[in-house]
Design brief:
With 216 residues, the protein is mostly beta strands. It contains three helices and 18 strands.
Length: 216
């Protein structure tokens, strides 16, 4: 499967992981992750929220660079015309390698920048939320599950979002939301098209309902 984004497209992968693709970026991935690893191939920039599978690492290939994770959130910037390759972790731990050796391990707010020409790697501490600010702009959700969408919106609006009924997580919808849309406006639209409801209790948003349209 190949997806090429013209806007910031949100993609739900076969294992339930979620990816936001930046403009003019491409992600290749299989319809099902078989074998002992979950391999995807990125050109451009993307933000990943990876489902944890302890015995099946998630591997992002970007040219000669390989980023390996078990379950985490991280950003990769690997534009073809960019002289550097950069990985930034916002949660969890990743391991970065090239075709010759392991370059290092990154934790939350760590960033590694590697020169494509020399292969020299530098590591520094950054503000991860600033690095992924581009993901909080216009988003296009295509046939995505409510579970994946709410993970993205939780980050987007820095709000805790939970489900009363786990079955609702599998509802799917398609829609575009813009950076000036408020969370309440977005939730009203999504729950309207999926026949669900939302309520706010203290600092938590709850998604509820007996069922929904758009089930898998």
């Amino acid at each position: 499967t190949e997806k090429k984004a013209r806007v910031h497209q949100v993609i739900s992968l076969p294992d339930g992981s979620t990816v936001i693709l930046n403009n003019d970026s491409k992600l290749d991935f299989p319809p099902v992750f078989s074998g002992n690893s979950r391999d995807v191939y990125l050109t451009g920039e993307a933000y990943f929220e990876v489902r944890k599978q302890a015995h099946k690492p998630f591997i992002v290939h970007t040219g000669r660079f390989v980023t390996t994770v078990l379950g985490t959130r991280f950003n990769i910037k690997a534009q073809l015309d960019d002289p550097d390759f950069a990985v930034t972790v916002t949660n969890g731990k990743v391991r970065v390698s090239d075709d010759k050796k392991e370059l290092g391990t990154l934790l939350e707010n760590d960033q590694m920048v590697v020169s494509k020409a020399s292969g020299q790697a530098t590591q520094q501490v950054v503000n991860g939320r600033e690095v992924i600010a581009w993901t909080r702009q216009d988003l296009f959700f295509k046939n995505i599950t409510l579970e994946a969408a709410m993970m993205i919106l939780s980050d987007h609006y820095n709000t805790k979002i939970l489900f009363r009924n786990d079955a609702l997580q599998h509802c799917r919808f398609t829609g575009t939301f813009f950076s000036n849309n408020g969370l309440e406006q977005v939730l009203n639209i999504i729950t309207g098209v999926t026949d669900t409801e939302w309520k706010k209790e203290n600092d938590t948003i709850w998604i509820e309902g007996k069922g929904c349209t758009g089930n898998e």
